[in-house]
């Protein structure tokens, strides 16, 4: 059964603080910058928001409670979404419900992480119990190894080839070259992709994201509030989340999106053919390919053929990960789970600047998070519509 | 000048020399080996307590583990069942003046060189007395065999029928007791011969000497540096309450070169 | 593949500092290590619904029951996916790249991630549960049919304690196990055996069995004598890759009727001797656990199974065995950061003069030797040799209190 509509609730003031490969600043510092950015965009003072939703891996020893005091915020809605790549979608849909129900008036959603030298290794080392117990002791390849197994099995099952995944990475790099904030500045050819050094067969260098520091943020408020403040905004046409789907699948060849996708389209009153752009969670191209299938853009196993026959760049027939995605802009911890959401708000509100897809009105944002043991556990999807 | 002044003068001037009759105590010095079902004589063991380190910054010392009868040692009368009731028969009860006395050395080294089971007999003692005069009462009698020059397995000289090493016959001990000696000493691991269990009484030196309140010394060395007569033996065991014996440093005062 | 004998070390190169694979585990996951230490393949089974699960959990993933227990499980499955890791932030694996791992669908149900040895995607595999260098149980997928030189694979070599090309010190050559142990070690490819002789000055019995053996060196070594240990360690300490402590002092007798002289000797040899031996050789071995093909790998001590629960007829001896076991457990913790394995071989009554009046079953020296070397080949940590030891361990695990009462005569 579809959820109630998100009537009267909007997403606005998308902010990306440019990423940095390594930074000595803390998560608190980065989150404060993101929060300040989105408030500035709305013309709000910190005392004027009453809700906060935080996603971050590097706040330790603080939780968002400590962060609220740290940042001097008095709140009546405080949430933390520890869902990695699914955080953006989940934060938005929960904040929307809180505002809709009157539990909060304005919720700032923010995700950001620090990245000091060695902090990625330390993050991995305490990531999850199953990973600790049953994944890291086997070569400590981190997510690269986990997704190598998924990619290996996917290729064997559906006959996808490396160049198919390369097309996704190459198109995203082309998009990233138009995004001044992307960390990756050099063009990427399919040969570059195919000849790159192996990281964990068949995952090669350009299948991997680069960990960095950064923050993404947006605001959730009532539509009348946005109109009163003259802010461009996006509505949520529908959203779903699903965790630990298909637990019996021996290898993750499909994600939780597939469970509820029909519900989503029913709620949104539209179909895949109506989307002007798609933001997938792209920690690895194989996962983006899986999302293209599970979100209904093609049949299962048809992802490789789909990317062979579509142009995934901003100007193409299937604009995908228009900011360059994590593969080309970098993965700023939990902010990676907001990247697609923030970019999609920009796109449907006409604020994407150099990466703007012409006439973008409907965008689909898909999240995928928390690699635990052998697979990602969290998934979520939202369909956004520009207000214009 | 007093006697002691003269003695210290002689020691300083070399007219009296000090001979050390003691083996070094170390973990590999042989001890008596009993059949395995008996409790065994503790080997000498030394564990560092500290050595100018975190366990004691300015000092070094050891804890020792040993038996009363480990290394060069003294046997008190209560060591043997025959001397168990001897008054004053424990090491702590022995009067101090008993611990210094004249010493007679009977050289059996030639015979021992031919025969591992060489026996000290009354005849050998009689021949010695014929040459050097009667053994005086209160004298230590030491049986020189040069056995102390052996080491390790040759020292115990174990065979399938037990150890083989020289020692006194029961009659030899009886004769020494007639002379009222102070004690009897050897270079071997015991005062008795290796095969001493087969005499009547078994282990005659232990049985008869301690039964008569006499002392034993074993694992001695350097007996070849002593004159047959004329030396003084200093053999004070540790003052262990109820002790049946004690490792000790055995010294002999012998006339110097000019005499 | 056949592992070549290592070249001599370049003395101008720094010895590689040991690193460990990730050692941290949840409490539930330690069950894998317990099973691996004994060479068993065990997984969590739900007592209510029978579900078999992995990774280890605190509740059944099928029915939420907390009635979970580790049970021996059939280790067969199929390799679903594989990868060869070329980049790892972990220092241990970085030194050993590329590293192969994959996911295995077990016939028993769960999918397990595993190290791969000699298998590829789609192969039918048998999964071993072995201790890795961190001392934790890990899955290793191997072919269903093994070949002799499979243990030469770098993955197994890195985590194991195989005697091949290694130099072994047997602490007390007078133990009746020595000759068969030497034979078994050489059969497993050991390069050299040093054999310690206590009170070498008295030429103890039992050494004649070693006469004329090649690649065997006798040396004075007495675990009650710190000086002899110091000398032996300074002479051969840098060449001992595996140490097998066979020093044992045993006398029948309980506590009331037994004299403390013999009991002290037992403690001196069996418990304190193990401690002294570890003090003399342990730090040097711990510093050489990453020293190439013949790196230091294991410290083994032989214990009576009655270390777990005493037989009053050997009460004082068993007190020393319990103490020795406790010492070994502490050593296991102390060696852990170096990856040096501390293995305990528990044996039932052995076929020797001190158990002569006892009825069978008794452990023959050859069987004990076999158990030690098998354990080293599989990298085990807790080895139970013989029916008596296995039975005792089973009963001890299930109910130590009941076992005590059974042994002490309460059992009909």
TrEMBL record, chain A:
The family database entries (InterPro entries) matched by this protein are listed as: Thiolase (IPR002155), Thiolase-like (IPR016039), Thiolase_C_2 (IPR055140)
Domain (Thiolase C-terminal): residue spans on this chain: 265-372
**So where does this one cross the membrane?**
none
Q: Which UniProt keywords apply?
A: Transferase
Q: State the superkingdom.
A: Bacteria
Q: Name one GO molecular function term.
A: acetyl-CoA C-acyltransferase activity
Name of the protein in question: Acetyl-CoA acetyltransferase
Please name the source species: Lutimaribacter pacificus
TrEMBL record, chain B:
The Gene Ontology terms for molecular function here are: arylformamidase activity
InterPro entries given for it? KFase/CYL, KFase_sf
Identify the SUPFAM superfamilies for this entry. Answer: Putative cyclase
Q: Name one GO biological process term.
A: L-tryptophan catabolic process to kynurenine
PANTHER family linked: CYCLASE-LIKE PROTEIN 2
Question: By what name is this protein known?
Answer: Kynurenine formamidase
| Protein species of origin | Lutimaribacter pacificus
TrEMBL record, chain C:
- A Pfam family of the record is OB_ChsH2_C
The ChsH2 rubredoxin-like zinc ribbon domain covers 35-68
Outline the extent of the ChsH2 C-terminal OB-fold domain.
70-128
Q: Which SUPFAM superfamilies match?
A: NAD(P)-binding Rossmann-fold domains (SSF51735), Nucleic acid-binding proteins (SSF50249)
> Which PANTHER family does the record associate with it?
BLR3430 PROTEIN
This protein is called: Short-chain dehydrogenase
What is the organism field in this record? Answer: Lutimaribacter pacificus
The organism's lineage?
Bacteria, Pseudomonadati, Pseudomonadota, Alphaproteobacteria, Rhodobacterales
